[in-house]
Structure of WYL domain-containing protein:
Amino acid sequence: MNIRTRHDAIVRHLRRSGTATIDALAAEVGASRRTVLRDIVALRDQGFVIHSEPGRGGGLQLDPQSMQTTARLAVAEVFALLISVAAMRAAGHLPFSGLADAGLAKIEKTLPPEKVRDLRRFLDCLHVGKLSPAQDLSDIGSIDPDLLPTFEAAFLDRLHLRFHYHDAKGRQTRREVEPQAMLILPPLWYLVAWDPARADFRHFRMDRISKPNIVDGTKFRQRHVPFDEDVCPYSSLPR
Amino acid sequence: MNIRTRHDAIVRHLRRSGTATIDALAAEVGASRRTVLRDIVALRDQGFVIHSEPGRGGGLQLDPQSMQTTARLAVAEVFALLISVAAMRAAGHLPFSGLADAGLAKIEKTLPPEKVRDLRRFLDCLHVGKLSPAQDLSDIGSIDPDLLPTFEAAFLDRLHLRFHYHDAKGRQTRREVEPQAMLILPPLWYLVAWDPARADFRHFRMDRISKPNIVDGTKFRQRHVPFDEDVCPYSSLPR
DNA sequence: ATGAAAAGTGCCAAATTTTGGCACCATTTA
DNA sequence: TAAATGGTGCCAAAATTTGGCACTTTTCAT
C-alpha cells in the first residue's frame, strides 16, 4: 500500500471508529506499529489534530474540526471568493471573516505569482465603506451577471468600458469611461470611473448599469481616486 | 530537493519561461534529465497539460488553462467561506456570487458526506433577510472572534450555549440557551435561541454576546423557528 | 502496590522506492 | 546528413521507508 493511501486509510478509520489504538490501525492498514506511529506524526504535521491517551483504555482520536478538504479551483472562482469575503468583511461584523481569510490565504498561496499580482491590483481598486443609515434602499435593482467578466478584463487590462446607464430620474444615457475603482457600500455597489467626455470622475450605481462591453483600443492611465469622505461624501453618490 | 518540491519548481519554471527543454529544467531543479522526464509523466498524470515538440527548436510547454489551484482547507474554513458567500448573496447585489457558488460547490464535493450533512444543517439554521431602511446602525460593535468555533460546535452537537449579553439599555445578563438559528440582516447578525428559563425564543444581537462557551451535558432538541415577518417582524428585534 | 495496556522514542538493518547513467529510438529542422 | 530535441527500457547506486527491538512514560483495573 502506498504511503499516501495509507494515510488516507488511517484518517478514514479514525473517523469511523472514534477511538482506535495504534495496533488496531496497524492491523487495519497492514503496516507495522512503528510505521503507523510515524504516519500519525506525519498527519499531525499536515495539520490533523489527533488526540492521544496513553494507558489502559487509551488510544488515538481524530479531532473532526481539523479535517481538511482539497479542492481544485479555477482562478476566476478564487477571484469571486476573494471579493465576496473582502466585501463581507468590509460590510462589517462578519463573525467568521478570520477563518474565511485564512482559507483564502491558503488558496492564494497556490496561485501563480502573476495571478496574485493581478488579484491584488483588482482588490486595490476595491474600496469598501459603510452606507449612512439615512440612505434609502427601497429601489435596489439586480446587477447584470455579465458585469464581472467584463469588469475584470477592463480593470486588469485598463481598457475603456462602454455601457448604458439609467439614472435616478429614469433617464438613460450611453457612457464610455475609464473604470478606476469599485466602491462598495453594502448593499450598494458603485463603479468609480473617469469620464473623458466630462473630464471628471463619475460614480455609477452598478445595478443601474446594463449592456457593458469593452472598447478595444488604447489603454487608459490609472488615476488617483479620491475616496475621502470630505472630498467625495457618500451622501453625494447617486441614489 | 523533495520530489513534491521539484514538481512545483518544474511547473513554476514552465510557467515563467513559456517553452523549456528538458535539459534546461534538469539544470534548474538540480536533477538528471531522466528524472525530469519521469516528473513530466507524473505531472501529466496529475492533470497538467504539457505540450511537447521534438526536434530542433522544440521543447516543453505548459498549457496555462490546465493550471488550477489546489488548496487544502480546514472544514471550518469552508464553513466560513460558505457563510460569507451566502450572506453576501442575501445582502443582495453581489455581482460575482455565481462564480463564488461554483467554486464552493467544487469544494463541497470534496468534503466527506457527513460533513456535507452537517454543513447543510448549519446552513439551514441560517436565515438571511434585509434590514428595514429605518434601522439605526450607529452602534454596531464587533463580534467576539471566539464565536464561530463555539457556535459551530453548539449548533452541530446541539449543546447548550452560555454567554454574557449586553442589551440595548446597557444591562448585562448571563444566559444559557439552546441555539436554534442564525438570522442575518446585514450588517447585523442575530442568534435565535430558545431560552429554557423563559420558555420562549429570544433574539440576541451577536455583537452584544461575549464570553461564549458550551455547556457539556444533554443535547437539546431542534425546534421550529418562526422566521415569518408576520410572526416575528424584524422591527421587533433588539436594537 | 502491581501488572497490563496503551502512547511514544531511538536505533539499526532490511525492504522498497527513487534516481542517475547509459544505450537507443523517433522526429524535426538547418 | 547532422544536430537538437522528446521519449523508453534497463540496471545499479542512492535515498527513503519500513519493521523490529529495546526502552520510557502514563493510566487504569485489580
